[in-house]
Design brief:
Chain lengths: 287, 287, 287
């Protein structure tokens, strides 16, 4: 199977030449490559954040290669790997530090894995800190040009790959609020929506109005399907585009308003029958 | 007519996977698509800012499709639309919230419009918040693959489309300064240039030196053709690349220096014959 | 030789439509063009920073055209130029303000140069401030469509081109520390690594532990090959991916920690035999 598409996900940012040089190396060797940037906005060094982004995106990415790089251990003994999934429809290339693991799982699990130990495929470089340019890109180009994955290096036991870290929700009991769900913020997007690691199903046993406990800050939020259903200034729990609950506001940043960040813990309880203290006249736009 | 080009403009930013996933959906279904990003840096929820950017860019965009998404009402009853312009040379796809309207007008006006009500073309999704991925991208791919615009949904009366909001300049009279032009900042670019909603023609009856009134702050600025004609530290009114006047400084941010932002009001008066109080020895570089 | 590839480097940023419009002009006229963004994140007006980025990237860029724009003098008498290098394998297009010079030197030097004085190839525009759109992009499209470089305008003496400014390291003598190397920060990347204008060879006569003098702030840093070799919280001198020394920390920003910026002066001395005052128990991750 000859792939032509490469998707890229890194923490390189857009201000330096890193992304452009990585792409240049691919295109120089494989001019027919079609490249799609998933994003290069992973927070620097944030392997978990990058792995979750890749897991969210992977189901939409066209068949072919994925190069993912969030790699604080670049140049050390951490392995550089290529992982084959879905009967060869996908090959994920990157560091073996857990970054690829959730996406590999989403794609049905690793079928074969190889360490990129065949250094004859790599670029010579004066330093060891840019594996994207010197290892991942030329190996991807090799595969795009019809090279076999068996040639990239020694085959690995897929069970030896570094697992990813997916935070799981838990249970919590509170004297005042009863039984609830303990979860955490897994992603703050550019709009300030704070995705939680619970889906609508996980709170299906609760009413649609929930008590949201953020440390000392206790709020009320209803589960809704659109941002516009949230009253201006109020907090909502939107079922987001991945089916997860996200703490959101209408045309405002929930993250900023609540001072919430990734990994912050959130407790959800049924709100019960008390009136909503924040209930105000609706002042929405275009409703 | 079979289009191959899609231009994209959103407020998705570059830090999340939104843009990458939208593109992935297009390319997965229509691998021959040629995609150009106009920008994804519209301020979150800023429909007016996005509509003005699209209107500025549209005259340069190749024939084909445009997907534009600044869509705080995503998932609500606001319509998702496709608007045909220029005898079918262009099709603009996005929310019917005024975002597309100024660009449609720039392209000669809407010839046909359709609501994207044919849900069989959309992606199934666990949430309603990502119309770019689930509606706009797959509909675009359908059109790129030779699908007819008539199939995307029910035809709309083009007069029923939400109009855009283009701020118009006005007149102002001041006891001290006489008759002037009241305008506003429509765009602050990355260099800090503050575009106004007046062109050079609108002030052709005035001298080339203008009094710029920004609330209590009164400045002198000359109309010039290049940033380098503005003295270091002084304010200028550059005829920008769209023929509009922009408050600018040489190698510095006028927005930051003047604390100016989008929608801020600016009054322009003739400066008259008084000497320029800020006149200093020119200390430009390379002049 | 018919080129199809264009690499882009600008200070346009990603928030406005500048990059998208420049690309649109190219693709509209030359739909077969293959465009790679080196970066658009050069700091506004920073000709030196842009020139150094271009020089770092140029060795990896595919054969073809490069458009580079950091151009505070846009619209003035500064020349717009096209410079041919490497027997025609590369053509660099941009302002004649030193931006292209280091990359041209890296590519073997200018073989022919032309002023973009043939205005019949340019776009008509209502203002003079967007040469990328109105001059560089249409000239690039002309060349991509098989146009001859001789047609873009009058040939220039390559010796008349504006040279670039590459900071060279020097020597320094300190009463306490002895003979050392005086260098400066040439680049702060997105991770906070501070590249210096000295390579590992330049300090080969020194021990691998160096005394780093940053004004009143004196640190110890060892020369290492990977970020992970730097102790948590300590400072290192990594041999970076271009073979230069960079002041770095492990999973943290050296620039932020040291309050270092581009052009800041750094002195390097041998550390000698004193014990490392900052030596602490290693608390690395995965080591």
């Amino acid at each position: 199977m000859n792939h032509t598409h490469v998707a890229l996900l890194t923490d390189y940012g857009m201000n330096d030449e890193f992304v452009g040089v990585l792409k240049s190396v691919i295109i120089d060797a494989a001019p027919h490559a079609q490249i799609t940037d998933i994003s290069h906005g992973v927070a620097p060094f944030d392997v978990r954040g990058g792995s979750l982004m890749l897991a969210r995106a992977v189901q939409y990415v066209p068949k072919g290669l994925i190069i993912a790089v969030v790699d604080p251990g670049v140049g050390t003994a951490r392995r550089a790997i290529a992982v084959e999934v879905a009967g060869g429809d996908g090959i994920l290339i990157g560091p073996d530090n857990g970054l690829l693991a959730p996406a590999v799982a989403m794609a049905g699990g690793a079928e074969r894995a190889f360490e990129l130990s065949n250094t004859s495929l790599h670029l010579e470089a004066p330093g060891a800190t840019f594996a994207g340019r010197d290892i991942f890109a030329p190996v991807a180009a090799y595969l795009l040009n019809g090279g076999r994955i068996d040639d990239v290096g020694v085959q690995l036991d897929v069970d030896s790959l570094m697992p990813g870290l997916i935070p799981l929700p838990g249970e919590v009991n509170d004297d005042s609020y009863g039984a609830g769900v303990k979860c955490e913020v897994t992603w703050v997007d550019t709009f300030g929506n704070c995705q939680l690691n619970v889906g609508a199903d996980d709170v299906a046993h609760m009413p649609s109005a929930l008590r949201v406990v953020l440390g000392d800050d206790v709020r009320r939020a209803s589960i809704v399907r659109t941002y516009a259903e949230i009253q201006t200034g109020a907090l909502g729990l939107v079922i987001d585009s991945y089916g997860m609950l996200a703490l959101s506001m209408d045309r405002a940043s929930a993250a900023e308003s609540l001072k919430l960040g990734v990994t912050d813990e959130v407790w959800l309880f049924p709100y019960g029958d008390e009136p909503d203290p924040s209930q105000t006249t609706r002042v929405g736009i275009r409703k």
